[in-house]
Amino acid sequence: MRKKNNLFDKKSASDFVQCTTLAFTLQTVVSSLVMFIVSSDTAAEQSKISSIYETPGFLSKETLMQFLVVALLSAVIRHIFMSGKVVKVPSVSLRVILTFVCEIVMVGAAVWLFEWFHSVRVGHWIGFVIGALPCIIAGGIMAYKGECKENEEMNAALRKKQSEE
Amino acid sequence: MKISININPDNPETEISVSCPSLTPEVEKIISMIRVMDRKLTVKKDGEVFLLEIGDILYLEAMERKCFVYTDSSVYESEAKLYELEQQLAASGFFRVSKSTLICLKHIKSLRADLNHRIRITMDNGEQLIASRLYADELRERLGLR
Questions:
Q1: pLDDT per residue as tens digits for the range B83-137
Q2: Is A25 among the domain residues?
Q3: I want to staple A58 with a disulfide (CB 3.0 to 4.6 A). Which of A14, A37, A43, A148 is the partner?
Q4: CA–CA dist B91, B37 (Å, integer)
């Protein structure tokens, strides 16, 4: 008899990345805005000092805006390559590779251009990623629910077609 | 090849008789096509010839220049090519889901969206088949989802 296919049983990568991107971007927008409101010039100065001496500090308004722009650009890049609506790449693996290469180049350019080596410390990045985790999980749940709905619709259409024939 | 048709209102049912000097592959193919009209498919298993009810067939698969016919519990081999069977069985609810597979719509148990816009098809006997991206779109169209 035929061998059963043991394929990667997960939601379509494009839908998943779109949902997580949306969640991640929203989280970035909210956290950046909150930090933007509470930050001050003094905090910016403290950030500059703390980055040198590696002590806890705040990010400046300017850096937070840069963060926001980079996050939005990241979302745009993901949409371009992953959604299949702008650039139609047939292979999912190629889409993922293109997306991440472009993101790495974009983030690398931002780090160099905005001199994040001086203003952003590793701790900030780690905190940012940990803060985004609940949103990524929420994105995963959204993607799973979307998948369930699609499967339900497909199976309902199948039953209808079978009864017709 | 000579074809003669004898129309007689006294005949209770349509009868087809084939007269030939020997059973050549061409004659076998003609008989096989007539069998499909009668909702039967000529298949082989362990050197024996069987007449399989089309309704019992779950799916057909081409592999290494051979065509295999899958039922609930057995696998048979058909002499015909997959594209020939596709044409013959289209009216019986069979359609292509990949370059090498034909399935019967009424024997699909469930469908599931898979990675890369493919569809995972679970048949009545629990076996799983994959509709490739191109054919998955056609399947969605067939189901009226597009």
A1: 988 988 888 889 999 999 999 998 999 999 876 678 999 999 899 999 988 898 8
A2: yes
A3: A43
A4: 10
pTM for the full predicted model: 0.57
What residue ranges define each of the domains in chain B, with the CATH number in brackets?
A: 25-142 (2.40.50.1020)
Helix (H) or strand (E) holding A140: helix A122-164
CB contact under 8 A, A4 and B106: no
CB B44 within 8 A of CB B76: yes
Return the residue of A nearest to B122 by Cα.
Answer: A4
List of chain B residues whose C-beta atoms are within 8 Å of the C-beta of residue A90: 133
Measured between CA atoms, how close is B145 to chain A, in angstroms? 7
Residue B38 C-alpha, separation from nearest chain A C-alpha, in angstroms: 18
Phi, psi of A137 (to 5 degrees): -60, -45
Residues A98-145: pLDDT tens digits?
887 888 888 888 888 887 766 666 666 666 666 566 666 766 677 677
Tokens of residue B106, six digits: 């009424």
- Is A3 part of any domain? no
How many angstroms separate the CA atoms of A107 and A67, rounded?
A: 10
What is the number of domains present in chain A? 1
- Structural domain harbouring A34: 13-164
CA distance A61 to A38: 9
Residue of chain A with shortest Cα separation from B118: A12
Highest mean pLDDT out of A35-39, A79-83, B120-124: B120-124
